[in-house]
Amino acid sequence: MSPTSEHRPTLAELERGLPFAERHIGPRPDDLARMLEVLGVDSLDALAARALPDTIRDDAPVGASLPAPVGEAEMLAELRELAGRNTVTVPMIGYGYHGTRTPSVIRRNVLENPAWYTAYTPYQPEISQGRLEALLTFQTMVSDLTGLPVAGASLLDEATAAAEAMTLLRRANRSTSPRFVVDADTVAQTVDVLRTRAEPLGIELVVADLGDGVLPEGEFFGMLLSYPGASGRVADPSALVEAAHGRGALVAVAADLLALTLLNPPGEFGADAAVGSTQRFGVPLGFGGPHAGYLSVGQRHARQLPGRLVGVSRDADGHYALRLALQTREQHIRREKATSNICTAQVLLAVMAACYGVHHGPDGLRDIATRTHRMAAVLAAGLRSGGVEIVHDAFFDSVLARVPGRADAVVAAAHDAGIALRRASDDEVGVATSEITTVAHLHAVWAAFGVTGVDVAALDGDTADALPAGLRRASEYLTHPTFHEFRSETALMRWLRRLADADLALDRTMIPLGSCTMKLNAAAEMEAVTWPQFADLHPLAPESDTAGTREMIDQLETWLADLTGYAAVSLQPNAGSQGELAGLLAIAAYHRSRGATDRDVCLIPASAHGTNAASAIMAGLRVVVVGTAPGGDVDLDDLHAKIAEHGDRLAALMITYPSTHGVYEAGVRDVCAAVHDAGGQVYVDGANLNALVGVARPGAFGGDVSHLNLHKTFCIPHGGGGPGVGPVAVAEHLAPFLPGRTPRSDGGVGPVSAARHGSPGVLPISWAYLRMMGLDGMRRATLTAVAAANYVATRLREHFPVLYAGADGTVAHECILDLRTLTKETGVTVDDVAKRLIDHGIHAPTMSFPVAGTLMVEPTESEDLAEIERFVAAMVSIRGEIDRVAAGEWPAEDNPLRNAPHTAACLADDKWDHPYPRELAAYPTGVTPGVHDRKVWPPVRRIDGAHGDRKLVCSCPPPDAFA
């Protein structure tokens, strides 16, 4: 403000500075005014009145519990105060979670690098080669260490990976038995999630003590062994595996990857699958998550593998290229027949774990494992020297000590010394060593047990290893050059930079993916993720140590409940898919509590996300599809017909609002009322919540339950396909059925993820976003997103038909561009347009969902007008090229669209026999002198996915494969 301005800012205004919302929201006031002028309205409120139906607008103070916004400094100060209420101890609890060191080069270049954390799932593989190579490295690492040839690109955590393995073994086995045997020496969180997932599928879980090597009587289709066991015990599982196979059962093994550097891998003793966590490979504890689970299988089960699988293929020039293989987005193709409802992974964490393996290499990992084991062996020997009984003679890193009646006293004494141990029972204490354990920690633990005066050097020399000789690993692992070439930090830094440069993330361009909400992940929001007070908390730490994190979680749950109009929220689901499942399980449990056990029909519109149908099946419900009206709304006549047909069997309706077609359906209250009148419940999918926050609440216009996507609406970054957080929000009558809130014996629903709060390590991001935005900022963000989508639709409508629109031709926060007629007339497909956008340096919108042959565009509120105009200009340019194909100037099979994307190598080739110039291929809209060149050079040309599926290769190929 100039000195001559009439208004002089107050000191309070000056001290407050620029509100965070002004940083988060892209369009400047003048730009927003221009956008609104194009839309024919004079304000965001006027746009809301035009676009949103009166039936959903909520005049109540939406989100009243959200405090007035603060700036970045104030928000960080509040977070530091919450962090200060946590007490970080040395984590020697174990039980599936271990202390680890994130190498600084990985923390700085991956976890804190927006080139990695702002990327999306690699559905455009030509501009995702870096992430795909890192995930292929992850798969290779897991495959090598488990001894099984095919590993997925990560799952959500160890417990859900075990559940996915259970259902995989059931699909893969011809056995008609419903029984699945679980080793009693398995961590409790895995058993609990297995129960949650087994019950609605009719799987009978048999938890059996297999310590004596004897299987339970009767038939069973599968078995899960733990190696090492939850107690720390290491035993040879080969006889049990052989016996199970003899009974016609398949076997999965929950294995510690670090232990497998020293122990025989599951694949070598006949296991059909291996599951576990890669957390101890450099991924912070984070109070339980996010962590990358893993699942590896034998070759014959590769096509049953759930989730993501990176495979090797070739591009248009025959060069090596990577892409997602086989079941890419299978939920949207197979819906209720999908093998799983998983539609994301834990990519960012899997990348970190893979980089940890590359950083240390096989020798380094073996050294870490050896040191960890020796610490445990010496610890046990010291306890024995003081008269403490050690329960197991063979163990890797977890020592179980028997102290009759003294467990609480020992744990308390250790805690006073700054060390957290595990109270296994009144009489037993578990102690786990790790990469970060020191000799000083051993002395502190001994002292807690009442053992003093231990001569560590002498004890070390006299103490043998505690691993059975017959289980010592002899086979090699991590033999690929990738795990040997980057020993120096310089080399590793450059490898990571090369991979990042092979990707296109939000740090370089808008990613206008419909239904995905790729908005700003502000640096201030991300800052607290690596603070030790949040990052280094063990999920089983005493409540007194975690007061700050739990208060943050309580506040976030309250704010989210208020913003959505519900009574309660659980942050436990660690992905949107798990939030969907939790919501449907709550509905099913509610009906059971009322004696309505026959209510098993779930109505799902044909346009719904494919995960909806897959989740319904996993919740034990039957899917009945409801048709779509010509305007994109739910077909009300078909809905009423289906309600009448299924009557007393109706359990729920799942709808997405605004609809997956990108419109606010005016009749949504009538839809909800019809379902309620029939005794059903309404599930409102929160995937499109970015069009509602601050202006309407699903819990107020008829929803009984919703899942929310914190990795969409509330700014947790997508991380290349994970982490995700999918809280479930419910009305008051469903609150007792939130996951883990009420005991199963009282009709409650069990946990849906391993940790009590899912992925609390990334929750400071959403907390910070809400704290800095406030209610007014959230409302502005929502309406700016709606304005941006309508601006794109208006600017492009004359070039590409907008498939669906609501009142006065408006859309919600996304719009669908229809290319089907153009494809029929010219042969140019949505794939051609998507790949040509790469030549413009822009990530493509969502392709062929929810309607084949279309592009769904969601600009979000964070993109400024210049970037939106760049996208519009690219699409207009592409339409001009389509017209030239239509006019016969270029052949349908040889034009800039069909040949896109163009690499620098193909343009530099001496042979150029295309009917368009190289300059047009490289620079579709030309280069303006004096303007920074934003050219993005894709590393590969269009990839042949079918070739890679026919010849499936899902681990790093040897160097001679490139000859």
Which tags fit this structure?
963 residues; alpha/beta; Aspartate Aminotransferase, domain 2; Aspartate Aminotransferase, domain 1; 3 domains; seven-stranded mixed sheet
Provide a brief overview of the structure.
The protein folds into three domains: 101-501, 3-Layer(aba) Sandwich (Aspartate Aminotransferase, domain 2), CATH 3.40.640.10; 529-771, Type I PLP-dependent aspartate aminotransferase-like (Major domain) (Aspartate Aminotransferase, domain 2, 3-Layer(aba) Sandwich); 776-950, Aspartate Aminotransferase, domain 1 (Alpha-Beta Complex), CATH 3.90.1150.10. Helices cover 37% and strands 11% of the residues.
Please work out how many helical segments DSSP would assign.
Answer: 31
What is the CATH topology classification name of the largest domain? Aspartate Aminotransferase, domain 2
- What is the number of strand segments? 26
The percentage of residues in β strands lies in 5-15%
- What's the CATH H-level superfamily name of the largest domain? Type I PLP-dependent aspartate aminotransferase-like (Major domain)
Broad structural category: alpha/beta
Number of domains: 3
Roughly what is the average pLDDT, rounded to an integer?
94
Cα Rg:
28 Å
Main beta-sheet strand count, sense and barrel state: 7 strands, mixed
| Envelope shape | globular
Low-confidence stretches: none
Summarize the amount of helix as a percent range.
Answer: 25-40%
Broad CATH class of the largest domain: Alpha Beta
Q: Could you give the distance between the termini?
A: 64 Å
Main-sheet strand order equals 2-8-7-6-5-3-4
- CATH architecture call of the largest domain: 3-Layer(aba) Sandwich
GO biological process, one term: glycine decarboxylation via glycine cleavage system
Enzyme class: oxidoreductase
Domain Glycine cleavage system P-protein N-terminal: 22-449, 459-741
InterPro entries: GcvP (IPR003437), GDC-P_C (IPR049316), GDC-P_N (IPR049315), GDC_P (IPR020581), PyrdxlP-dep_Trfase (IPR015424), PyrdxlP-dep_Trfase_major (IPR015421), PyrdxlP-dep_Trfase_small (IPR015422)
